[in-house]
Amino acid sequence: MDFSENEDTGALRDLLRRFIEREVPPELAARWDREDNFPREMIKRLAELGVCGLTVPEEFGGMGRDVFGMITTIVELARCSSALAGIYIQNACYGSLNIAESGTDEQKQRLLPGLAAGDIIFAYGLSEPDVGADLASVKTRAERRGDKVIINGYKRWCSGAGIADYIYMLVRSGEADARYKNLSLVLVPTNAKGVTIQALGTMGSRGIPTNDVILEDVEVPFANVIGGEERWNRGWSLLVGPTLEAEKLETPALALGIAEAAVAEAWEYSQQRKQFGGRICAIQSIRHMLADVQTKLASCRLMLSHATWKVHTGQPSAVETSMAKLFVADTTREIVLTCQQIMGAYGYAHGFAMERYVRDILVMPIWGGSSAIQKNNIANLMRLPRE
Fold this sequence. Notes:
Layout: H1 7-23, H2 26-35, H3 42-49, H4 67-80, H5 82-102, H6 105-116, E1 122-125, E2 141-145, E3 148-155, E4 166-172, E5 183-189, E6 195-200, E7 210-221, H7 236-239, H8 243-247, H9 250-272, E8 274-275, E9 278-279, H10 284-312, H11 318-343, H12 354-361, H13 371-381
Parallel strand pairs: 1-4
Antiparallel strand pairs: 2-3, 3-7, 4-5, 6-7, 8-9
Helix pairs in contact: 1-4, 4-5, 4-9, 5-6, 9-10, 9-11, 9-12, 10-11, 11-12, 11-13
């Protein structure tokens, strides 16, 4: 593996950093978090840079599938704001990745150009109040009636549903005892009659609220079933298909960006803050903590880069993506909490971004498949005997 950054990735990183410096000053990112409100039009600004096309085939107005570019974009946006990275994930990952991989020809033609242009945003509707990791137990029901599908149920943790156009929803479309065989994925317009969206307050990852979604006799066309007739009652294979490995990298990319920002703030703070007659960066315990977080940060980059390379080049990657999710999410939490400790009380106070980084990083070992689930995945995929 070549560890040098190629010219395209370097140019993309520079483009994004110039955009953030110009368009998203620190006080604006802080306001999005404080008010738990985010302007949807920011996705259009990102689309103008071309990054929304990194997961859209060229024939539909995109730049072709570029997993390295997608991950680079998430990391750079997360350094500024988890909300900014989040709306990009909703568009380029929840939307374009899934439709390009699993949509019918009609769905691709109808949705991908709009996704590439930043006109369409997806949210996920997978979890339910009593369903988290065990998605095969979903209870939200979908009944086919001719060319319509009628949906009733309750979805939870639908991040960004309040600003999305569609919810990419997992539903029970047959008998529950069949579990994996009677599931389908359906696109539910958020403005459909019978859809109620409620905000759930969270301590971090603010700006794009997470939502409960209540569905009461919601009617959608059968044309909104992902994969069409062939995938009705066969949606599980789409949920755990090739797109899953790319999607497992979204959370560690988000976590890495937050950790990079936290290390940068603590590093700078240590050179400005004076105690006992000198800068605290001269104190051995502080120097050791800073050396530790830089080392851990480098290891996270390598782990994520390796998994991204395997997905980008189409190699088997399920073990590596689970390892990256596990290691990066857990390690970046350690990094950010150490950075907060370096800053002392100022790392806990408003006025510095550190307290936001702490709140945002705490959820990373939970999002996108918890650390416990990733450990199960790794042990199972590596064929560790159960007895």
